[in-house]
Amino acid sequence: xxxxxxxxxxxxxxxxxxxxxxxxxxxxxxxxxxxxxxxxxxxxxxxxxxxxxxxxxxxxxxxxxxxxxxxxxxxxxxxxxxxxxxxxxxxxxxxxxxxxxxxxxxxxxxxxxxxxxxxxxxxxxxxxxxxxxxxxxxxxxxxxxxxxxxxxxxxxxxxxxxxxxxxxxxxxxxxxxxxxxxxxxxxxxxxxxxxxxxxxxxxxxxxxxxxxxxxxxxxxxxxxxxxxxxxxxxxxxxxxxxxxxxxxxxxxxxxxxx
Length: 258
Description:
The chain has helices at about 5-20, 35-175, 225-240, 240-255; strands spanning about 175-180, 185-190, 205-210, 215-220. By secondary structure, the protein is of the alpha+beta class. The N and C termini lie far apart (about 140 Å).
């Protein structure tokens, strides 16, 4: 701050030298004024020294307080870490104890459930035994009834077979046809020969599904017109005359192979 007043002093000296060269002026006759710059400079220097000392003390105090705070924080963190370990240990022990209590309760409940289950099973088996006995008696009665019905049905089938065999032999001979199984339940294969004038041994056949009341042809060789097959099957399902149906099918094969 001392350098701030040096230009003023230099200006005064310059002005004095100029006055020596220049003739006297009215300003030289004015009284001189002392502004007290030197005193102000000294006061500012003392103030700066005190301020610097205050700042240095403040810095030392802040640094000491900061170091003390860091030490306190480190101690608190270490204490917190120890407390956290103690809490974790207590929590682990509490968890183990709770699991032990839960396991014992589960074992007790399981034992009670097992006793209840065994009692229930015993009662259920007794009821099941009585029900089985009743069912066995009912089944024996049904078996006896079905056996009697089957015997009666067998007698009826035997009588029907005696009537059908001569007719079947007639159609097989008349139509040059034979009947074979297909390995599928309720399905028969009808095979015709002498349908090709150029080769009497050539075979034409179709498979008839009789599972439902309305019969249907599931396979045919050689290929026939669908409409013709449908008409033949519809007539069979209407009049149930198998002889006419076989005769119509043979006619279709013969017409196709001409």
